[in-house]
Amino acid sequence: MTVENLKSLPITNLDAIPVIQPTAGEGGPGYARIHTDWVACTITGVASTTSTYRLGRIPTNSKVKQVFFSLKGGDTNATATLAFDINMAFSDSTLDVTQVNLQGTIPTTANTGAVTTVAAYSSPNKLFGTVVAANSGVATYNKDVTFNAGATTYPFSFRDDDLWDVFGFTNNQGYAQDPGGFFDFLLYVSTVAATAAAGLLGIEVIYVV
Length: 209
Fold this sequence. Notes:
mainly beta, four-stranded antiparallel sheet, 3 helices, 7% helix
């Protein structure tokens, strides 16, 4: 068997002469920011496919380290069916610095800077997968959904990359460039509740900028 003695890129850079300091959150230490948010979902909302819930607004240059999902209620059936896609979508605010042509749109799975909309919902990123409510409306608190979408959609390495770069945004010359602004967690009802009930829906995100 062949023995390996490997170093990560940040360690290689730190051992270089001269030393190359890793970027904060990309192999270098950075200050973790924690953002929690919640919204009340209604009986009619969780009984309707395409209902959406926006929460947890963070900058486009966030390096997302961990995401937690919480839900109390929503579906009181013994075999719950209520399911939410967890997307990242551009802020829909006209008051922040999110570009007008991107406001409210959803980056697609192409990761080429392409976007879709809630109305079209064509190849939405579902970056943190789809999560199903617990049976009988039992509360789910801080369920780790960071890698819920699988290694192809959100591999471990993406935690060290800016969200805008994960989605492949470029400038007019084709070079990688932050479009600026903010992303929201957009939770989309992809499967309605078997027995709809009012509930509380929450997101907690740990990120570095």
